[in-house]
Amino acid sequence: MATWILTGSVENFRINVERGFDVIGFKERRRNQAGAFAPDDEIVFYITGEQAFGGIVRVRSEMFEDRTPIWPQGAKKQPEDYPWRVEAEPLAILDEEAFVAVDSLLDELEHVRRWPAEHWHLAFQGQLRTVSAADAKLLRQRIEAAARAGAPSG
User: Fold this and answer.
1) Which helix (H) or strand (E) holds 3?
2) 9 with 25: CB under 8 angstroms?
3) Across the chain, what does the average pLDDT equal?
4) Residues 6 and 43: beta-carbon distance below 8 Å
5) Which of 3-12, 19-28, 38-47, 64-73 is predicted with the least confidence, judged by mean pLDDT?
6) Do residues 4 and 37 lie in contact, with contact meaning Cβ atoms separated by under 8 Å?
7) Residue of higher predicted confidence among 143 and 116
8) CA-to-CA separations, 59 to 63, 85, 120, 128, in angstroms, rounded
9) Given pLDDT bands bounded at 50, 70 and 90, which one contains residue 20?
10) What does the pLDDT look like over 113-124, one tens digit per residue?
11) 10 Å Cβ neighbour count for 97?
12) What DSSP element (H or E) covers 142?
């Protein structure tokens, strides 16, 4: 099982929330990486504008191609249709107020250590990357703890 970090906008994250994280899409140029997904892999969502993690899902299918528009195209010069997709199911999804700030994990994430401390944000450039088992465990623990803390009591 691999754990991936998917970098995206809060707008795309909100669309995934509305859809129940049933399908996750990847950019055209990420075909080879998307083809490496397997059922039971996990995807952690890194929200660019927030510099925070918003949730984690489990992959339920192999990669497939679908160009049906789901995510906004915005004002980009070359709009993306995120054609490489996997079916997924939510494991722990956070309300925006409960997102886990990446700066709270900078001293612990192995992935971030590849860059000078003042340039940690470079660790999340590009749409998709895998992380170590230690980072996967840390991210899962923090996101699940934030989800439990934000869960209504009763």
Assistant:
1) strand 3-8
2) no
3) 90
4) yes
5) 64-73
6) yes
7) 143
8) 9, 10, 27, 14
9) very high
10) 888 888 888 888
11) 7
12) helix 133-150
